[in-house]
Amino acid sequence: MSSKGSTVRHHLRHTLRATAAAALTGGLVLLGAGSASAHVTVQPSTTTAGAYTLLTVGVPHGCDGSPTTRVSIQIPELITSVTPSINPGWEVEKVMADLDVPIDDGHGGQRTERVAEIVYTARTPLPDGFRDAFVLSLKLPDAVGEELVFPALQECEEGETAWAQLPPDGDDSAELPYPAPRFEITAATEDDASTETVSDAAAAAPASADSGSTSASATTTDAAPPAATWAALALGAGGLVLGALALLRTRRRQA
């Protein structure tokens, strides 16, 4: 692990611990003022247990007018692998953490580390009043009803804001000034069943999914030509018959 990654992780964890303690005691978390009217959020493309999903992390503003320079997103322990999207205006880094117990990597080997955080560092600070978004690809665990929390540390040219507050049971997180981005894993529905396999394959391996789709389309075309193709063949055959009759008539007249 790089010394930079280790420093970032230590700083984020220290800040989040302080944030959690303040939240539990009912205090407000304010590390450089941030607007309470718009939060750092996470929006999943699907919340179905065991499915691949794309998480869009939105950053809507700076810290009390100060431009954003870095956004660190903590990944829940239930998730071990994350693929962050490249954002042209930012440098991106995966911060790894050792697993207490190695797990199967799905390819005949074992995974000894997991992605603990994703850190986006602005090449040019994001001005207050402008938003940006980061997309993370990952597979959701098979844990229906489990809430996944993605605490985020937003650092600015002046000050920083820890989006890490969690509400007491039964309370609405919208009432918190600095809520942690989070969502709940849900069970598959009948609608999900018809699209889940295709969606999961596309998210896990876009290239192979695309080639498989092309192959399937070719097979369908070979087995059952569309109605337009049959119509064209019929018209072509009719034209050949009419042409032959005209040729015969011409030869008879000449004879």
Q: What name is given to the CATH topology of the largest domain?
A: Immunoglobulin-like
Integer tally of domains: 3
Rounded mean pLDDT is: 74
Task: Tell me the distance between the termini.
Answer: 96 Å
Instruction: Describe the strand arrangement of the main beta sheet, using strand numbers.
Output: 5-6-3-9-10
Structural class category: alpha+beta
Sheet-strand content, in percent, reads 25-35%
- Report the CATH superfamily of the largest domain: Uncharacterised protein YcnI-like PF07987, DUF1775
**Which CATH architecture of the largest domain would you pick?**
Sandwich
CATH class of the largest domain: Mainly Beta
Structure characterization notes:
This is YncI copper-binding domain-containing protein. Residues 195-221 have a biased composition (Low complexity). The chain crosses the membrane at residues 227-248. Residues 39-185 form the YncI copper-binding domain. With 255 residues, the chain is of the alpha+beta class. The chain folds into three domains: 3-188, Sandwich (Immunoglobulin-like); 189-222, no CATH class; 225-255. It is built from four helices and eleven strands. The chain has helices at 3-24, 190-204, 206-223, 227-254; strands at residues 41-44, 52-59, 68-74, 83-84, 90-104, 110-126, 132-139, 147-149, 152-156, 160-163, 182-184. Helix 2 crosses helix 3. 24% of the residues are buried. Mean pLDDT is 74; it is low at 1-9, 17-37 and 205-235.
